Input
Amino acid sequence: MKLVKNIITIDGPSGVGKGTLAFSLAERLEWNVLDSGLLYRLVGYLSSNEGLETSQEIVQFLKKSKIKLITNLNESICEIELNDKILGKDLRNENIASRASELAKETEIRNAIIKIQRDAYDSEKGLIADGRDMGTIIFPEAALKVFLQASPEVRAERRANQLKEKGMSVIMHDLLEQIQQRDEEDINRKISPLKPADDSLLIDTSNLSIREVEEKVMENFKKL
Ligand code: C5P
Output
């Protein structure tokens, strides 16, 4: 397989710092960001808030919808335009994430969003792809694949801080439980489980600042 130098994949469990790293690299390199988790959250949202009960209904809805991914570098977030409605904050809560994780086990759901994810790559621009299976399934051709790790406690703490910054209330014990539950589902599912690609750069972020993680990735990027 011919390796592509202007795609960097970042995989790892929730709250490990993928999003923060993705945006700091995207700003530095002036690339786009694919937050693939947001697409799964959209699926969770359609199920929880829009009353689509089965995977088939969700897939049908996605097929006939106009879905656009937006990289908002000013606010360091990705957004989804769904049939001309911008969804952002509505998707970022742990209930939607848990529902997303349950539905992410379904083959037909995963298949339905493969093309949207691959289309996020514009060869002229470059892409940082953030998720669980970016290096293994969606962009195996990426020359640099990063896999981030950190203990569940450290990740719950980080996620709590992010949610608090957005003005949301947090119960630490519940958050830790939800994170562990999601890890379990993501690691043990049959299709596209969370695991490092064989050629991944593994980084434990527990005791590293975002700058230190960024530097490690850039050192490896410059060697390509
Ligand atoms: O990354 P985020 O926490 O937003 O993802 C929400 C859920 O979507 C994850 O817990 C995971 O189950 C699922 N997901 C996935 N594959 C991806 C990205 C997210 O299965 N590439």
